[in-house]
Every structure is written in C-alpha cells, then in structure tokens.
Amino acid sequence: MNTARRPDTDGLPCMLMRGGTSKGAFFLAEDLPAERPSIDDLLLRVMGSPDERQIDGLGGAHPLTSKVAIVSRSEAPGIDVDYLFLQVGVATAEVADRQTCGNLLAGVGPFAVERGLVQPGEGRTSVTIRLLNTGDVATATFPIRSGAVAYDGDQAIDGVPGTAAPIEIEMTGSGSPLLPTGNTVDDIDGRRVTIVDCGMPVVVLDAADFGLSGDEEPATLEASAALTTSLEAIRLQAGPRMGLGDVAAQTVPKMILVSPPRHGGTLTARAFIPHRVHPAIGVLMAASVAAGARIPGSIAHEIAELSDDRRVTIEHPSGRFDALVRVEDRPGVGAVAASSVTLRTARKIFDGLVFPRPHR
What we know:
By secondary structure, the protein is an alpha+beta fold. It has seven helices and 18 strands.
C-alpha cells in the first residue's frame, strides 16, 4: 500500500462494478494494506458494516451487494491476474474468504484491463485469472473496442435488467474431487444429500423431502424457521465432511434445494447463501449444481430432465441460467468436472475514490 496515502482523509482508489447478478467494490491489492486484519478493518468501514442498512458505506444491505474483489498482477506461470474474493458481513463485522464469487469474477477481466494489468487486443481479449480462494483457474473473454473494454451489448442474463456485452467464463478446476466425500449420496440428519464442489462447495437436497414444491419465492423460504434451522444443521455437519472444518462463521457450503423444471429447463433450484435465499443463482453455485446433475445417482440427477448435449438449464427465482459442464472420471481422483462454461455480463458503475467511515 502507498504509505503516503491516508484512506480516511485522502480516499482509496475503488471501482464499483456489477458482475453477473452481484455488485461489489474492486480494488488493486497494491492500494490496500499488506496485513489481512488491517484490510478487514478498512473494508468494513468502506462497506458500512456492521449495519443492516449499511447506510454509511458502499454496501447495499444484502449479501449480494456487500462484496469485494482484490486483484493483482499474478506471478504464476500462464496466469494474468490473481483474484481474491471477500464477503463482507452486512449486520456483522465479519469478512470471509472461504468461498469465491463467480458473479464478481465476470468483472475481474475488465477491471484488469481498466487498471492496466493486462494490455488488450482489438476485438476480443482473454484474461486468465487465478481464484486465490479456491485455487481454480478461469479464463474470461470479452469484447474490446478502440483499446477499451466494451460494456454495452445485446447479452441478457436473468436477474439483471437490460443487456450488456457478453463475457464468456471458462472454469478449469483445481484438480480436487468433484464429490468431496467420495459418495454420490450421503445421509445427514436423516436427509439424503449430494455434496458437490465444482468451484463452489454446495449441498444439494430434494425440496420434496422438506414438504416443498421447490418453486417457492425466496421470502417464503426464508420465513420458515423450521426449514432454515434444518438446513443450517445439515450445513454445519457437511462442512467438516467436505474438509472445510467448522463452517459456523463461514458462508460455505451453500445449500441448494432442487425440484423438477417448470419451464422447459433441466431442474429448478433455490440457493441458500447460506441463510438468505439467492434471488437468482450464483455462477459457481450453478456450475456445481449442473455438474451434480450430470453424475448418475446424485440427488440432482434423479430429478433432472437432461439433454443430450452438455447444457444444463437451471430455473431460479429470476429466470434461467445455462451452464455447459463436462464431467469425467480420472483414475485416482474420481469424478472431476473438467470444465464449465458460462455467459455473464458486467458493468463499470463508478471509478474514483471511496472514503471509509472513520474509526470510532
């Protein structure tokens, strides 16, 4: 961090971006303190946490709008930039790094070009990104016009009004097992679950096992204390089984209720993140659910109406999400998702200085 700059009085370089169906503050690593406790303190003050309205900061009073991306030029061979995702608590003074965010990932490539970390070509540019939270690698490809990122275009994604330029994101896994427990189905608290990690740790459950149709509105699901209590009990037990340890203070794994499709898709999903219900579905959550749907015997596979190609269409509260996923067996590793491809959009909202809330 430039020690001559004092964020409280001089401001902190920041770009606010929408990435997919999320929104977050993007920073260069070099503009932030070196030590993690100092970073956390600064970001809580930037976002206005803890406060359920986040009235004194950039946060939008919801987990999907209380996110941070920290980007730096990578020293790893074949990688352009490193991306660290931080989930900033809304009503709590917590900054979590146990998960990544595939929606904000859509903004990382454009941000890298905006900040001069990557020199773009003309037409289309690809940026290779290492996701520091998980070790996964993604390649984001997006349009360039006259040497600058083109944000306008005709690509629509459900959960975001209007259209924007398409951003193609191809994920290649870290080589970790797609099924962390080695089982297609596990039993937790008397419930059949499938535990999957294709870039985002998720626990897939049949909505019917909870007496649900699976197409309920998010507010209806959140209002059921019995449901949320049951899901949290399962989540706390699933975390150690996935090698995540104690997840009580973490936002992973995500809990996914699946049910049959209603509108010509592959299946319907309701994603708990982990206590609020996502108004759509996150990119990497969708990749994990889609990969699970391609594994014979899994909870998702039992429900899914699969096509003959790689496409899995997930119906969610705001519309549909298409993912292309290839699942293959690798000797000694087990079922591994070789790659997933999704289409997202992103938009630069503002670029300038943000002034953190003063220390109290």
